[in-house]
Amino acid sequence: MGSSSLNTRIRDEAAGRTKRVVLYLRVSSKRQMDTDSDVDPDGNSINTQDKWCRAFARKLGAVVVKVFIEPGNSAQTIEKRPEFRKMLAFLHEDGDIDAVIYYNRARVFRNYIDAGNTKQQLASIGVDLLSARENFGEGLTGEVMEALTDVFNWWMVRQSGEDIKAKMANKARNGGTIGKAPLGYLNVRKRVDGREIRTVALDPDRSHYIPMAFELMATGRETLESLQGKLTDAGLRMPRSGKGISTEGLRKLLRDRYYLGFVEHEGIEYPGRHTALIEDVELFDRVQRILDANGENHVRHRTHHHYLKGLLWCGRCEHRFVLTRAEGKSGGIYFYFFCRGRQEGVCDMPYVPVEVMEDGVERYYASSVTLSDDFRAEVALAVDEALTGDSALSDSLRAEYTKRLGVLDRKEDYYLDLAAEEGWPKDKLRAKLDAIRDEVRSITASLERADEQITTGREVITAALALLDDPGRLYKRSGETVRAILNRALFSRLYVDGDKIARATAREPFAELMDQHRSYHAARAAEGRTGTTTNKAALLAPPLAGQGWSRTAMVDLRGFEPLAPSMRTRCATGLRHRPLQRVKL
């Protein structure tokens, strides 16, 4: 736009009034806020835009009333730009602004529809939109050139976005990390053959905390809050703030498969080039199950701590029991468990004092959580006999597994190539890849664990039998920490009725053992009445065949069983249970 036409639009010589304008300056990243204007000819800094817009205002003889700066907001629509919305509100409120000056159209509008709508909206209140760097001319021709520029800018944004999207997909396909590396890694730049390469390296100050976090969580003894405290005490600090990791940040960390060596783009997972900090897939999966279990139990550890929280459910209405704190008339503080159903008006279960509930669980352990000596002996003998003849995979089966892995590897490469291209249905490709990888994991696990599977199964069954030797005595003499471990290992839920445990939902393999124990003694009682002989091996067949226990469940049990003599001695001598008492303040 020439100076004569600008004077026509901006200055009304007859009125003799100096025109009032506002400036709108925008960059798409916070880094550009501090870019040196001397080396920024393209207007990618606030300083550059400010100088050009103020010079343009002086040329028009206008006074700058206000400057609106949109820092580091890359939104492509004006609705997502808070400063632009503030400017529109200011223009309507002031009512005496003649024009908005901006650096160029591309800085303001990335969408030709926004450009047209905004121009019409401002024209309705007598405000012009003027570019400091572009001269579109006057009249219809000028408006056409302005509109074509907006369409071209929109096309450039879309084209650039598609190009970036393709590059990101290709980077992920080749195992590269997209965006900021997670905690434990650093984004670094290296020069290779004279070229700068952006890659990811291990953070020497923080990477060793990641395996520590997974291993501690995998024990089943930690909550997110307790684990966060231990990691902070051990020295883990966030890179910028210097503070400990938040519990929500820790939750995301423990869920992130990046630590297994994978990168994800648009829902498709690719093998990454970065170093995996968690090499044991079983460890990662175990942590996921523990996080899922804690979420299902809805345990809240932030308010009142107790080792029975999350375990107790109402035997009448099957609502969850929660712990509450009450103050007595005489000033004492009391803790009770109460049913959520009572709170909702659908249950008549009374409040149960904490110490009464603790005694009820203790009695349940003594009366119901045990196996008779003869049954345990029968199971142990049957386990040894059943497993003695088993062996590792045959050579022919191992060869078939290896052949199948080769087929799956080629299929995975094929689908990954398709995922890197545009137009293919991502959901279907993701499902295909997930199915392939699940089969690969299953076959690989079978190959790697074939020789140790039998031994592990025997060890876990033996450990379960030993734990059920006299759990009531162990529970009675244990402190709160060991009680919590026992409860979590044996049960998913205890159903309460009054001051006693009415029934329980046991975890594997204890659920199957207890069921078989009942069947075993029922059969023996029938044998005594009828004079027939019970086939004990038939009763034990389901658990020994794995029908009641998954391989995963047996492996999960390791680490929960306080069975070693040293543990029993420590429980008997050093860990005396002290119930929560009523406290006078």
Report on this model:
The chain is built from 21 helices and 15 strands. Among the domains are: 158 residues, 3-Layer(aba) Sandwich (Rossmann fold); 113 residues, Alpha-Beta Complex (Hect, E3 ligase catalytic domain fold); 81 residues. Helix 14 packs antiparallel against helix 15. It is of the alpha/beta class and 585 residues long.
Key phrases:
single chain; 585 residues; alpha/beta; Rossmann fold; Hect, E3 ligase catalytic domain fold; four-stranded parallel beta sheet; four-stranded antiparallel beta sheet; elongated; disordered N terminus; disordered C terminus; Recombinase_CS; DNA strand exchange activity
State the strand order across the main sheet.
2-1-3-4
**Dominant shape:** elongated
Mean pLDDT: 76
What's the tally of helices? Answer: 21
Cα(first) to Cα(last) distance is: 81 Å
* CATH-level-2 architecture of the domain at 3-160: 3-Layer(aba) Sandwich
Beta content comes to 5-15%
How is the CATH topology of the domain at 3-160 named? Rossmann fold
CATH class of the domain at 3-160: Alpha Beta
Report the C-alpha radius of gyration, rounded. 35 Å
CATH superfamily of the domain at 3-160: Resolvase, N-terminal catalytic domain
- The beta-strand count equals 15
Protein name: Recombinase domain-containing protein
GO biological process, one term: DNA integration
Domain Recombinase: 182-297
Keywords: Coiled coil, DNA integration, DNA recombination, DNA-binding
